[in-house]
Amino acid sequence: MAEELKLFRSWSSPFALRAVHALKIKGLEYETILEDLKNKSDKLLEYNPIYKKVPVLVHNGKPICESLVILEYIDETWKQTPLLPQDPYEKAMARFWAKFGDDKVMQSVWTAFISQGKDQEEAIAQAGGDFRFLEEQLKGKKFFGGETIGYLDLAFGWFANLTGIMEVITGQKLVNAEEFPLLSAWINNFADDPVIKELWPPHYKMVEKFQAMREPYLKKVA
Amino acid sequence: MAEELKLFRTWSSRFALRVVHALKIKGLEYETILEDLKNKSDKLLEYNPIYKKVPVLVHNGKTICESLVILEYIDETWKQCPLLPQDPYEKAMARFWAKFGDDKVMPSVWTAFISQGKDQEEAIAQAAGNFRFLEEQLNGKKFFGGETIGYLDLAFGWLANLIGIMEEITGLKLVKAEEFPLLSAWINNFADDPVIKELWPPHDKMVEKFQAQCEPYLKKVT
Protein backbone atom coordinates (compact mmCIF):
# COMPACT_ATOMS: atom_id res chain seq x y z
CA MET A 1 0.00 0.00 0.00
CA ALA A 2 1.45 3.33 -1.03
CA GLU A 3 2.22 5.49 1.96
CA GLU A 4 0.69 8.97 2.00
CA LEU A 5 2.99 11.57 3.50
CA LYS A 6 2.31 15.28 3.16
CA LEU A 7 3.80 18.34 4.80
CA PHE A 8 1.93 21.62 5.01
CA ARG A 9 4.47 24.40 5.37
CA SER A 10 5.37 27.92 4.32
CA TRP A 11 8.59 28.87 2.52
CA SER A 12 10.08 30.51 5.60
CA SER A 13 8.60 28.88 8.70
CA PRO A 14 11.46 27.88 11.01
CA PHE A 15 9.12 25.39 12.67
CA ALA A 16 8.25 23.71 9.40
CA LEU A 17 11.96 23.65 8.52
CA ARG A 18 12.48 21.28 11.46
CA ALA A 19 10.15 18.78 9.82
CA VAL A 20 11.68 19.35 6.37
CA HIS A 21 15.16 18.56 7.70
CA ALA A 22 13.96 15.58 9.72
CA LEU A 23 12.22 14.05 6.70
CA LYS A 24 15.38 14.58 4.64
CA ILE A 25 17.60 12.97 7.28
CA LYS A 26 15.26 9.98 7.37
CA GLY A 27 15.30 9.76 3.57
CA LEU A 28 11.52 10.02 3.27
CA GLU A 29 9.54 10.99 0.18
CA TYR A 30 6.58 13.30 0.71
CA GLU A 31 4.34 15.87 -0.90
CA THR A 32 4.79 19.53 0.06
CA ILE A 33 1.80 21.85 0.32
CA LEU A 34 3.11 25.41 0.40
CA GLU A 35 0.81 27.67 2.38
CA ASP A 36 0.35 31.41 2.15
CA LEU A 37 -0.25 32.30 5.78
CA LYS A 38 -2.28 35.36 4.78
CA ASN A 39 -4.61 33.07 2.83
CA LYS A 40 -4.69 29.70 4.54
CA SER A 41 -6.08 26.72 2.68
CA ASP A 42 -9.27 24.98 3.84
CA LYS A 43 -7.27 21.81 4.30
CA LEU A 44 -4.84 23.48 6.69
CA LEU A 45 -7.70 24.91 8.75
CA GLU A 46 -9.33 21.48 8.79
CA TYR A 47 -6.12 19.71 9.85
CA ASN A 48 -5.07 22.32 12.43
CA PRO A 49 -8.26 23.93 13.75
CA ILE A 50 -6.68 24.89 17.06
CA TYR A 51 -3.62 26.84 15.98
CA LYS A 52 -4.25 27.18 12.21
CA LYS A 53 -0.48 27.06 11.69
CA VAL A 54 2.23 25.21 9.82
CA PRO A 55 3.76 22.71 9.96
CA VAL A 56 1.18 19.96 9.73
CA LEU A 57 2.34 16.47 8.81
CA VAL A 58 -0.29 14.18 7.32
CA HIS A 59 0.57 10.48 7.36
CA ASN A 60 -1.97 8.14 5.79
CA GLY A 61 -4.73 10.66 6.42
CA LYS A 62 -3.78 11.37 10.06
CA PRO A 63 -2.64 14.94 10.78
CA ILE A 64 0.02 15.76 13.37
CA CYS A 65 0.59 19.38 14.47
CA GLU A 66 3.28 21.16 16.51
CA SER A 67 6.79 20.79 15.11
CA LEU A 68 8.44 19.11 18.11
CA VAL A 69 5.55 16.62 18.34
CA ILE A 70 6.02 15.98 14.61
CA LEU A 71 9.77 15.37 15.08
CA GLU A 72 9.10 12.74 17.74
CA TYR A 73 6.41 11.12 15.58
CA ILE A 74 8.79 10.91 12.63
CA ASP A 75 11.51 9.44 14.83
CA GLU A 76 9.20 6.82 16.33
CA THR A 77 7.58 5.82 13.04
CA TRP A 78 10.75 5.54 10.91
CA LYS A 79 13.58 3.95 12.86
CA GLN A 80 16.51 4.64 10.53
CA THR A 81 18.97 7.41 11.46
CA PRO A 82 17.57 8.07 14.96
CA LEU A 83 17.01 11.72 15.87
CA LEU A 84 16.55 11.34 19.62
CA PRO A 85 19.01 9.58 21.94
CA GLN A 86 18.12 6.06 23.10
CA ASP A 87 18.85 6.67 26.79
CA PRO A 88 15.79 8.01 28.71
CA TYR A 89 17.84 10.62 30.56
CA GLU A 90 19.54 11.92 27.40
CA LYS A 91 16.13 11.96 25.75
CA ALA A 92 14.70 13.97 28.66
CA MET A 93 17.56 16.45 28.35
CA ALA A 94 16.95 16.86 24.61
CA ARG A 95 13.25 17.55 25.27
CA PHE A 96 14.04 19.97 28.10
CA TRP A 97 16.49 22.02 26.05
CA ALA A 98 14.20 22.07 23.02
CA LYS A 99 11.44 23.53 25.19
CA PHE A 100 13.92 26.03 26.65
CA GLY A 101 14.79 27.04 23.11
CA ASP A 102 11.19 27.69 22.13
CA ASP A 103 10.08 29.24 25.42
CA LYS A 104 13.12 31.36 26.30
CA VAL A 105 15.84 31.61 23.67
CA MET A 106 13.52 32.46 20.79
CA GLN A 107 12.01 35.31 22.79
CA SER A 108 15.34 36.70 24.00
CA VAL A 109 16.82 36.60 20.47
CA TRP A 110 13.73 38.34 19.05
CA THR A 111 13.93 41.07 21.70
CA ALA A 112 17.60 41.61 20.92
CA PHE A 113 16.69 41.85 17.23
CA ILE A 114 13.96 44.47 17.54
CA SER A 115 15.42 46.72 20.21
CA GLN A 116 17.92 49.50 19.73
CA GLY A 117 20.63 51.43 21.52
CA LYS A 118 20.91 50.77 25.23
CA ASP A 119 17.84 48.50 25.20
CA GLN A 120 19.53 46.36 22.59
CA GLU A 121 22.73 46.13 24.62
CA GLU A 122 20.73 44.89 27.58
CA ALA A 123 18.73 42.50 25.42
CA ILE A 124 21.90 41.03 23.92
CA ALA A 125 23.31 40.55 27.42
CA GLN A 126 20.09 38.84 28.46
CA ALA A 127 20.23 36.55 25.44
CA GLY A 128 23.86 35.86 26.36
CA GLY A 129 22.62 34.38 29.62
CA ASP A 130 20.59 31.87 27.63
CA PHE A 131 23.47 31.20 25.23
CA ARG A 132 25.70 30.32 28.19
CA PHE A 133 23.47 27.31 28.93
CA LEU A 134 23.66 26.19 25.31
CA GLU A 135 27.45 26.64 25.28
CA GLU A 136 27.62 24.30 28.28
CA GLN A 137 25.47 21.69 26.53
CA LEU A 138 27.87 21.62 23.58
CA LYS A 139 30.95 20.72 25.69
CA GLY A 140 32.92 18.02 23.90
CA LYS A 141 30.36 17.78 21.11
CA LYS A 142 30.15 18.91 17.52
CA PHE A 143 26.36 18.88 17.55
CA PHE A 144 23.84 18.77 20.40
CA GLY A 145 23.17 15.24 19.16
CA GLY A 146 26.87 14.30 19.37
CA GLU A 147 28.71 13.44 16.16
CA THR A 148 25.64 13.82 13.98
CA ILE A 149 22.68 16.18 13.79
CA GLY A 150 19.76 15.11 15.96
CA TYR A 151 16.46 16.30 17.43
CA LEU A 152 17.93 19.10 19.51
CA ASP A 153 20.02 20.42 16.62
CA LEU A 154 16.89 20.53 14.46
CA ALA A 155 15.02 22.22 17.34
CA PHE A 156 17.68 24.96 17.32
CA GLY A 157 17.94 25.10 13.54
CA TRP A 158 16.11 28.46 13.56
CA PHE A 159 18.96 29.81 15.68
CA ALA A 160 21.63 28.79 13.16
CA ASN A 161 19.55 30.22 10.33
CA LEU A 162 18.36 33.47 11.84
CA THR A 163 21.26 34.79 13.91
CA GLY A 164 23.33 35.43 10.79
CA ILE A 165 20.41 37.12 9.04
CA MET A 166 19.68 39.27 12.09
CA GLU A 167 23.32 40.29 12.40
CA VAL A 168 23.34 41.39 8.74
CA ILE A 169 20.24 43.52 9.33
CA THR A 170 21.11 45.10 12.67
CA GLY A 171 24.88 45.30 12.28
CA GLN A 172 25.13 43.89 15.81
CA LYS A 173 26.97 40.68 16.63
CA LEU A 174 24.48 38.52 18.50
CA VAL A 175 26.67 35.47 19.12
CA ASN A 176 30.18 36.56 20.05
CA ALA A 177 32.68 33.87 18.95
CA GLU A 178 35.16 34.70 21.74
CA GLU A 179 32.43 34.51 24.36
CA PHE A 180 30.60 31.51 22.84
CA PRO A 181 33.16 29.50 20.83
CA LEU A 182 31.25 26.22 20.90
CA LEU A 183 27.90 27.79 20.00
CA SER A 184 29.52 29.76 17.17
CA ALA A 185 31.16 26.59 15.89
CA TRP A 186 27.83 24.78 16.12
CA ILE A 187 26.12 27.47 14.05
CA ASN A 188 28.76 27.03 11.33
CA ASN A 189 28.78 23.22 11.48
CA PHE A 190 24.99 23.06 11.32
CA ALA A 191 24.70 25.60 8.50
CA ASP A 192 27.49 23.86 6.54
CA ASP A 193 25.94 20.42 6.72
CA PRO A 194 24.95 19.44 3.16
CA VAL A 195 21.50 18.14 4.18
CA ILE A 196 20.75 21.32 6.09
CA LYS A 197 22.24 23.77 3.60
CA GLU A 198 20.36 22.26 0.65
CA LEU A 199 17.02 23.05 2.27
CA TRP A 200 17.67 26.50 3.83
CA PRO A 201 15.11 29.09 2.73
CA PRO A 202 16.57 31.62 0.22
CA HIS A 203 18.90 34.01 2.10
CA TYR A 204 17.94 37.24 0.34
CA LYS A 205 14.23 36.55 0.80
CA MET A 206 14.81 35.94 4.51
CA VAL A 207 16.77 39.20 4.90
CA GLU A 208 13.95 41.04 3.12
CA LYS A 209 11.32 39.39 5.30
CA PHE A 210 13.06 40.06 8.60
CA GLN A 211 13.91 43.60 7.61
CA ALA A 212 10.19 44.17 7.09
CA MET A 213 9.37 42.53 10.42
CA ARG A 214 11.80 44.86 12.20
CA GLU A 215 10.50 48.09 10.61
CA PRO A 216 7.57 48.83 12.96
CA TYR A 217 9.95 48.73 15.92
CA LEU A 218 12.51 51.04 14.29
CA LYS A 219 10.06 53.89 13.77
CA LYS A 220 9.92 54.54 17.50
CA VAL A 221 13.37 56.18 17.57
CA ALA A 222 12.97 59.90 16.82
CA MET B 1 22.61 -0.90 44.13
CA ALA B 2 20.05 1.21 45.98
CA GLU B 3 18.23 3.51 43.63
CA GLU B 4 18.09 7.19 44.58
CA LEU B 5 14.81 8.84 43.66
CA LYS B 6 13.83 12.27 44.97
CA LEU B 7 11.08 14.69 44.09
CA PHE B 8 11.31 18.39 44.85
CA ARG B 9 7.78 19.77 45.06
CA THR B 10 5.42 22.05 46.97
CA TRP B 11 2.24 21.01 48.75
CA SER B 12 0.04 22.63 46.11
CA SER B 13 1.92 22.70 42.79
CA ARG B 14 -0.35 21.27 40.10
CA PHE B 15 2.72 20.51 37.99
CA ALA B 16 4.41 18.57 40.77
CA LEU B 17 1.14 16.69 41.37
CA ARG B 18 1.45 15.18 37.88
CA VAL B 19 4.70 13.58 38.96
CA VAL B 20 3.38 12.52 42.38
CA HIS B 21 0.53 10.68 40.67
CA ALA B 22 2.80 9.14 38.02
CA LEU B 23 5.20 7.80 40.65
CA LYS B 24 2.25 6.36 42.58
CA ILE B 25 0.80 4.67 39.49
CA LYS B 26 4.21 3.13 38.76
CA GLY B 27 4.49 1.96 42.39
CA LEU B 28 7.79 3.75 42.97
CA GLU B 29 9.35 4.67 46.33
CA TYR B 30 10.99 8.05 46.57
CA GLU B 31 11.99 10.85 48.93
CA THR B 32 9.96 14.07 48.93
CA ILE B 33 11.61 17.43 49.45
CA LEU B 34 8.89 19.98 50.21
CA GLU B 35 9.87 23.44 49.01
CA ASP B 36 8.70 26.83 50.17
CA LEU B 37 8.65 28.88 46.96
CA LYS B 38 9.20 32.11 48.91
CA ASN B 39 12.38 30.58 50.30
CA LYS B 40 13.80 28.15 47.76
CA SER B 41 16.45 25.69 48.88
CA ASP B 42 19.99 25.90 47.50
CA LYS B 43 19.56 22.40 46.10
CA LEU B 44 16.48 23.41 44.09
CA LEU B 45 18.32 26.41 42.66
CA GLU B 46 21.28 24.17 41.83
CA TYR B 47 19.09 21.51 40.18
CA ASN B 48 16.88 23.94 38.25
CA PRO B 49 18.96 27.05 37.58
CA ILE B 50 16.93 28.02 34.51
CA TYR B 51 13.39 28.09 35.88
CA LYS B 52 14.01 27.74 39.64
CA LYS B 53 10.71 25.85 39.89
CA VAL B 54 9.20 22.60 41.08
CA PRO B 55 8.90 19.80 40.22
CA VAL B 56 12.43 18.49 39.88
CA LEU B 57 13.00 14.73 39.80
CA VAL B 58 16.43 13.47 40.85
CA HIS B 59 17.26 9.91 39.80
CA ASN B 60 20.65 8.56 40.84
CA GLY B 61 22.05 12.08 40.93
CA LYS B 62 20.63 13.10 37.54
CA THR B 63 18.10 15.92 37.55
CA ILE B 64 15.08 16.27 35.30
CA CYS B 65 12.94 19.44 35.19
CA GLU B 66 9.61 20.34 33.53
CA SER B 67 6.70 18.14 34.57
CA LEU B 68 5.75 16.75 31.15
CA VAL B 69 9.41 15.91 30.43
CA ILE B 70 9.52 14.18 33.84
CA LEU B 71 6.38 12.15 33.03
CA GLU B 72 7.94 10.84 29.82
CA TYR B 73 11.20 10.08 31.64
CA ILE B 74 9.33 8.09 34.30
CA ASP B 75 7.39 6.21 31.63
CA GLU B 76 10.50 5.31 29.67
CA THR B 77 12.56 4.31 32.70
CA TRP B 78 9.98 2.17 34.50
CA LYS B 79 7.98 0.06 32.04
CA GLN B 80 5.15 -1.17 34.32
CA CYS B 81 1.70 0.49 33.97
CA PRO B 82 2.51 2.45 30.81
CA LEU B 83 1.37 6.08 30.91
CA LEU B 84 1.74 6.89 27.21
CA PRO B 85 0.16 4.90 24.38
CA GLN B 86 2.42 2.54 22.41
CA ASP B 87 1.26 3.67 18.99
CA PRO B 88 3.32 6.63 17.66
CA TYR B 89 0.23 8.48 16.40
CA GLU B 90 -1.67 8.08 19.67
CA LYS B 91 1.49 9.17 21.50
CA ALA B 92 1.74 12.26 19.28
CA MET B 93 -1.89 13.09 20.04
CA ALA B 94 -1.29 12.78 23.79
CA ARG B 95 1.70 15.13 23.56
CA PHE B 96 -0.22 17.59 21.38
CA TRP B 97 -3.21 17.78 23.74
CA ALA B 98 -1.00 18.07 26.82
CA LYS B 99 0.74 21.09 25.28
CA PHE B 100 -2.67 22.52 24.33
CA GLY B 101 -3.72 22.11 27.95
CA ASP B 102 -0.76 24.04 29.31
CA ASP B 103 -0.58 26.68 26.57
CA LYS B 104 -4.29 27.37 26.02
CA VAL B 105 -6.69 25.70 28.45
CA MET B 106 -4.91 26.66 31.67
CA PRO B 107 -4.73 30.41 30.95
CA SER B 108 -8.28 30.45 29.55
CA VAL B 109 -9.69 28.81 32.69
CA TRP B 110 -7.83 31.20 34.98
CA THR B 111 -8.94 34.23 32.96
CA ALA B 112 -12.57 33.06 32.96
CA PHE B 113 -12.57 32.89 36.74
CA ILE B 114 -10.82 36.16 37.53
CA SER B 115 -12.25 38.48 34.91
CA GLN B 116 -15.55 40.32 35.20
CA GLY B 117 -18.36 41.78 33.16
CA LYS B 118 -17.99 41.69 29.40
CA ASP B 119 -14.40 40.45 29.71
CA GLN B 120 -15.62 37.49 31.66
CA GLU B 121 -18.32 36.65 29.11
CA GLU B 122 -15.66 36.55 26.40
CA ALA B 123 -13.27 34.57 28.59
CA ILE B 124 -15.95 32.00 29.38
CA ALA B 125 -16.68 31.60 25.68
CA GLN B 126 -12.97 31.17 25.01
CA ALA B 127 -12.63 28.51 27.71
CA ALA B 128 -15.73 26.75 26.40
CA GLY B 129 -14.19 26.62 22.93
CA ASN B 130 -11.21 24.84 24.45
CA PHE B 131 -13.44 22.47 26.44
CA ARG B 132 -15.21 21.51 23.21
CA PHE B 133 -11.95 20.08 21.85
CA LEU B 134 -11.43 18.10 25.08
CA GLU B 135 -15.03 16.84 24.96
CA GLU B 136 -14.32 15.52 21.47
CA GLN B 137 -11.15 13.77 22.62
CA LEU B 138 -13.09 11.90 25.32
CA ASN B 139 -15.55 10.43 22.80
CA GLY B 140 -16.17 6.83 23.82
CA LYS B 141 -13.54 6.93 26.55
CA LYS B 142 -13.67 7.03 30.33
CA PHE B 143 -10.23 8.64 30.53
CA PHE B 144 -8.09 10.36 27.90
CA GLY B 145 -5.88 7.28 28.27
CA GLY B 146 -8.78 4.93 27.58
CA GLU B 147 -9.90 2.57 30.32
CA THR B 148 -7.18 3.67 32.74
CA ILE B 149 -5.55 6.94 33.72
CA GLY B 150 -2.57 7.84 31.54
CA TYR B 151 -0.22 10.66 30.62
CA LEU B 152 -2.87 12.98 29.23
CA ASP B 153 -5.15 12.49 32.23
CA LEU B 154 -2.26 13.40 34.53
CA ALA B 155 -1.49 16.39 32.30
CA PHE B 156 -5.08 17.59 32.84
CA GLY B 157 -5.18 16.66 36.51
CA TRP B 158 -5.05 20.36 37.43
CA LEU B 159 -8.40 20.84 35.68
CA ALA B 160 -10.09 18.09 37.70
CA ASN B 161 -8.61 19.46 40.92
CA LEU B 162 -9.01 23.19 40.48
CA ILE B 163 -12.32 23.55 38.65
CA GLY B 164 -14.36 22.55 41.73
CA ILE B 165 -12.29 24.79 44.00
CA MET B 166 -12.56 27.83 41.72
CA GLU B 167 -16.30 27.24 41.19
CA GLU B 168 -16.71 27.20 44.96
CA ILE B 169 -14.77 30.44 45.44
CA THR B 170 -16.23 32.47 42.56
CA GLY B 171 -19.68 30.95 42.24
CA LEU B 172 -19.08 30.51 38.51
CA LYS B 173 -19.99 27.12 37.02
CA LEU B 174 -17.49 26.84 34.22
CA VAL B 175 -17.80 23.20 33.20
CA LYS B 176 -21.55 22.64 32.84
CA ALA B 177 -22.56 18.99 32.71
CA GLU B 178 -25.30 19.69 30.12
CA GLU B 179 -22.82 21.37 27.82
CA PHE B 180 -19.82 19.10 28.47
CA PRO B 181 -21.14 15.72 29.69
CA LEU B 182 -17.99 13.75 28.88
CA LEU B 183 -15.62 16.31 30.37
CA SER B 184 -17.77 16.58 33.52
CA ALA B 185 -17.81 12.79 33.82
CA TRP B 186 -14.04 12.74 33.32
CA ILE B 187 -13.55 15.26 36.12
CA ASN B 188 -15.56 13.04 38.47
CA ASN B 189 -13.94 9.79 37.36
CA PHE B 190 -10.46 11.25 37.71
CA ALA B 191 -11.14 12.84 41.09
CA ASP B 192 -12.77 9.63 42.37
CA ASP B 193 -9.89 7.37 41.39
CA PRO B 194 -8.37 6.05 44.64
CA VAL B 195 -4.76 6.67 43.55
CA ILE B 196 -5.59 10.24 42.57
CA LYS B 197 -7.85 11.04 45.52
CA GLU B 198 -5.34 9.78 48.09
CA LEU B 199 -2.76 12.34 46.95
CA TRP B 200 -4.93 15.43 46.31
CA PRO B 201 -3.68 18.47 48.20
CA PRO B 202 -5.91 19.33 51.21
CA HIS B 203 -9.17 20.91 49.96
CA ASP B 204 -9.49 23.61 52.65
CA LYS B 205 -5.91 24.76 52.19
CA MET B 206 -6.45 24.94 48.42
CA VAL B 207 -9.64 27.01 48.81
CA GLU B 208 -7.77 29.36 51.16
CA LYS B 209 -4.82 29.66 48.78
CA PHE B 210 -6.87 30.35 45.68
CA GLN B 211 -9.18 32.72 47.52
CA ALA B 212 -6.10 34.78 48.36
CA GLN B 213 -4.86 34.56 44.75
CA CYS B 214 -8.22 35.63 43.30
CA GLU B 215 -8.82 38.53 45.71
CA PRO B 216 -6.83 41.25 43.91
CA TYR B 217 -8.79 40.52 40.70
CA LEU B 218 -12.24 40.24 42.23
CA LYS B 219 -11.80 43.45 44.24
CA LYS B 220 -11.68 45.56 41.06
CA VAL B 221 -15.46 45.64 40.75
CA THR B 222 -16.90 48.37 43.03
TrEMBL record, chain A:
Residues 87-216 form the GST C-terminal domain. The keyword Zinc does not apply. Residues 3-82 form the GST N-terminal domain. Keywords: Transferase. It comes from the Eukaryota. It is an enzyme of class 2 (transferase). CDD domains: GST_C_Tau (cd03185), GST_N_Tau (cd03058). GO terms for biological process: glutathione metabolic process. Its EC number is 2.5.1.18. One of its GO terms (cellular component) is cytoplasm. Coiled coil: none annotated. The keyword Transferase applies. It catalyses: RX + glutathione = an S-substituted glutathione + a halide anion + H(+). GO terms for molecular function: glutathione transferase activity. PANTHER family: GLUTATHIONE S-TRANSFERASE, GST, SUPERFAMILY, GST DOMAIN CONTAINING, GLUTATHIONE TRANSFERASE. Belongs to the GST superfamily. HSP26 family. This is Probable glutathione S-transferase. It comes from Handroanthus impetiginosus.
From TrEMBL, chain B:
InterPro entries: Glutathione-S-Trfase_C-like, Glutathione-S-Trfase_C_sf, Glutathione_S-Trfase, Glutathione_S-Trfase_N, GST_C, GST_C_Tau, Omega/Tau-like, Thioredoxin-like_sf. SUPFAM superfamilies: GST C-terminal domain-like, Thioredoxin-like. Residues 3-82 form the GST N-terminal domain. GO terms for biological process: glutathione metabolic process. Its EC number is 2.5.1.18. It catalyses: RX + glutathione = an S-substituted glutathione + a halide anion + H(+). One of its GO terms (cellular component) is cytoplasm. PROSITE patterns: GST_CTER (PS50405), GST_NTER (PS50404). The keyword Oxidoreductase does not apply. It is an enzyme of class 2 (transferase). Keywords: Transferase. Pfam families: GST_C, GST_N. Residues 87-218 form the GST C-terminal domain. One of its GO terms (molecular function) is glutathione transferase activity. Belongs to the GST superfamily. HSP26 family. This is Probable glutathione S-transferase.
